[in-house]
TrEMBL record:
Residue ranges constituting the PITH domain according to the UniProt record: 5-176
Name of the molecule in the record: PITH domain-containing protein
Family: Belongs to the PITHD1 family.
Gene Ontology cellular-component annotations: cytoplasm
Taxonomic lineage from the root: Eukaryota, Viridiplantae, Streptophyta, Embryophyta, Tracheophyta
Pfam family, one: PITH
Amino acid sequence: MSTESASAILRSQVDLVDFIDWSGVECLNQNSSHSLPNALKQGYREDAGLNLESDADEQLLIYIPFTQVVKLYSVVVQGPEEEGPKTVKLFSNKEHMGFSNVNDFPPSDTAILSSDNLKGQPVVLKYVKFQNVRSLTIFIEDNQSGSDITKVQKVALFGTTVETTDMKGLKKIEDH
């Protein structure tokens, strides 16, 4: 790929926060007083005082459906140096995963977050694996220090929409 087309792709990337189907978002093992909206919702995720925190152990399983099909290019996962996420596995279009079966599926991509990533440097994904994404599952397997609590300050997804079809606006055939 030439540098010119790569930079054109980067320029056309948008923050996909506006295309998240909030009614379907789930997070397993979140601390109820430090929940996923703190890291995912606009405004909240910019507030350094707000975190998503794990509850029983260091793992978090986040499910994010989209209102339309997207192409995912990169992801930002910010967190503190010690309790910030380390191993992050991403699954495209895998629904209803739980801690019991998350290791049964090969991830679409795996990232080992560096201190630069935790400060906001995006992780560029294997682009071919994220072409027609209807949902994204993010499995945070462990954190930087091996402690029991993982803290996530911000999750941001960057990419483009595939088409302008609004899934919610489509009527089911039997509705006619």
